[in-house]
Design brief:
alpha/beta; Hect, E3 ligase catalytic domain; 4-stranded mixed sheet; two-stranded antiparallel sheet; 11 helices; 44% helix
Length: 272
């Protein structure tokens, strides 16, 4: 069974080596697996929003003051109709989660959620991938860059993008900040536009039907710009909802600088 995944990894590797672009959608954790990079809590939002929110709450609060939680390094999962307990580390059911070991707990439970049931298949695929790809060839990439290399850099239709964008919390198509936003996008290179799309939606892939067919974690979700934050805040993205939280910047120059920073700096910057 795993030999099929190993073969698929080889095909993926050959496509990369021969610069053959794939019309395929892969999640951010998948690209991280290919690069053998650790996953993060932010990688979970587009796959399981409610679970991500519950872990985000644990991250932001002192669990030592929340006695009713009674968390341990163990989780329950359903396997073929049976509810089983899975320890996140040896003896985990007897290890309570405290403020001191909370970071380790979050790392382990995120890895469990993203890898459960597919870790063996993923490892087979990655092994096949590196049978044809020199690790040094891809070691310079992060997950976003590898997606662009594998899935390609399709030319973005700005008119289609704008015509299929929604606005919230006081913004509208004729609002000055929104006008500056589209003015900034016009100045961006196509690669920067794709990086912005990745920042907000989690992927640079554009559906064949165009921006009207964009999807979120729970179905159809158009690109959305919401008024949020203070004029000195940085943009924030919600990949689960394809939503960009854009502060009401006072000038075009400030908006352009902040937006470019969000696009260029890092693959986890400002994502919730």
């Amino acid at each position: 069974f795993c030999s099929r995944f190993r073969f698929s990894g080889r095909v993926l590797g050959l496509a990369l080596v021969h610069q053959y672009l794939l019309d395929a959608f892969f999640t951010r954790p998948f690209y991280k697996a290919l690069l053998r990079l650790p996953v993060a809590l932010s990688d979970l939002e587009s796959l399981d929003f409610e679970f991500h929110q519950s872990l985000q709450w644990i991250k932001e609060h002192d669990v030592s003051l929340q006695g009713e939680l009674e968390l341990t390094f163990a989780v329950t999962e359903e396997v073929f109709g049976q509810v089983l307990e899975k320890e996140l580390k040896p003896g985990g059911r007897n290890v309570p989660v405290t403020e001191k070991n909370k970071k380790e707990y979050l790392e382990r439970i995120v890895r469990w959620r993203l890898e459960r049931g597919v870790s063996e298949q993923t490892e087979s695929l990655v092994r096949g991938f590196y049978e044809v790809v020199d690790p040094r060839l891809v070691s310079v990439f992060d997950a976003r860059e590898l997606e662009l290399v594998i899935a390609g850099t399709a030319e973005i239709d700005l008119l289609d993008w704008r015509n299929n964008t929604e606005y919230r919390s006081g913004y509208h198509d004729q609002h000055p900040v929104v006008a500056w936003f589209w003015q900034a996008i016009e100045r961006f290179t196509n690669e920067q536009r794709l990086r912005l799309l990745q920042f907000v939606t989690g992927t640079s892939s554009i559906p064949f039907e165009g921006f009207a067919a964009l999807r979120g974690s729970i179905g159809s979700r158009k690109f959305c710009i919401e008024k949020w934050g203070k004029p000195n805040s940085l943009p924030r993205a919600h990949t689960c909802f394809n939503r960009l939280d854009l502060p009401p910047y006072p000038t075009f120059e400030v908006l352009f600088e902040k937006l470019l920073l969000a696009v260029e700096e890092t693959n986890t910057f400002g994502i919730e």
